[in-house]
Structure formats: structure tokens, C-alpha cells
Specification:
Blueprint: H1 6-15, E1 18-23, E2 29-34, E3 38-41, E4 44-48, H2 58-64, E5 67-73, E6 80-90, H3 94-104, E7 113-121, H4 128-131, H5 136-146
Antiparallel strand pairs: 1-2, 1-5, 3-4, 4-7, 5-6, 6-7
């Protein structure tokens, strides 16, 4: 049994979007959305190096400091997971390339991936479930309607 539970793997596969937090060489936080997250094993995640806008970006930050946190959260249920670990930039990772290409399609060429060895993971459990007794279905319905999906049930 690894760090990543079946529920964590399911949420990563379902959402395919995460927010990656790194630290700049100057010690400032950097947060970047990434749409290529995939699970590779019981304790490894991968991201494609598609773009790191800003100076420096995610890849440059990781070259200076391999610490990373990825947050994957369902925007409608408000539940998800923060994954903390260490990153490595890898140029030749055929399995990661294959899996990421399944997510992005063939029109997103990339040469390297970010290999994340997950050291800790936890569940995001938002206050809405404790402050206002709500079921996950009620929370999801509220946010779907708020975003304009009126017929969602």
C-alpha cells in the first residue's frame, strides 16, 4: 500500500487540473495551474513541462529547490487533496509521456516531465461540511447552480 489511495488516484484522473506551488530562487512563493497531472504509481505523480509563464517559472524554481506541493480540488464538491513531495525534471520518461498524451492529445508536444515523489498527502475537507450540515450532493448542487448549471441534479 502506497501513499496515494484509490480515491486520490480517482480524483487526480477525474480533475486533471492541479495547482503547483514552488519557491522562487529569491524565496517567493509561485503558484501555477497545471492541466497535465497523472498518477504513475502508488507514490508518484507526473506533470508535463508545457509552459511556465513568468520569470522564473515552475521548472526554473524546481531546479533551485525541488520542494513542490500540488493541490487537486473538485470545484463543485470543494473536496480534494494536497500532495507534498520532491520533484525531479526528467527528459526521457516514455510511460509518463504516453499517459500525459492521453490527457492532452497529440497536439501538445513536450520534451520533459516533472516527476513528483509524493511524501505526504491529506484530504481537503472544507468548512462548509462542518459549519453548515451539508451533504456532498447539496454542496455540489449549490456550486453547479452558482456557476450557471441550473439543470444539474
Amino acid at each position: 500500500m502506497g501513499i496515494l489511495t484509490e480515491e486520490m488516484k480517482r480524483v487526480v484522473a477525474q480533475q486533471q487540473l492541479c495547482y503547483a506551488a514552488t519557491v522562487t530562487p529569491g524565496g517567493k512563493p509561485n503558484l501555477s495551474p497545471k492541466g497535465s497531472i497523472t498518477v504513475l504509481s502508488h507514490d508518484e505523480l507526473r506533470l508535463a513541462d508545457l509552459a511556465s509563464p513568468g520569470t522564473p517559472g515552475t521548472i526554473e524554481n524546481l531546479r533551485h529547490n525541488p520542494a513542490i506541493e500540488l493541490n487537486v480540488v473538485d470545484p463543485f464538491t470543494r473536496r480534494g487533496f494536497p500532495f507534498k513531495g520532491r520533484a525531479e525534471i526528467v527528459k526521457n520518461d516514455p510511460e509518463a509521456h504516453r499517459r500525459i498524451a492521453q490527457i492532452l492529445g497529440p497536439d501538445y508536444p513536450f520534451e520533459q516531465v516533472v516527476k513528483i515523489r509524493v511524501e505526504t498527502a491529506a484530504e481537503v475537507f472544507p468548512p462548509v461540511y462542518t459549519l453548515i450540515p451539508s451533504s456532498e450532493a447539496e454542496v455540489k448542487r449549490f456550486w453547479l447552480e452558482r456557476y450557471g448549471y441550473r439543470s444539474a441534479r
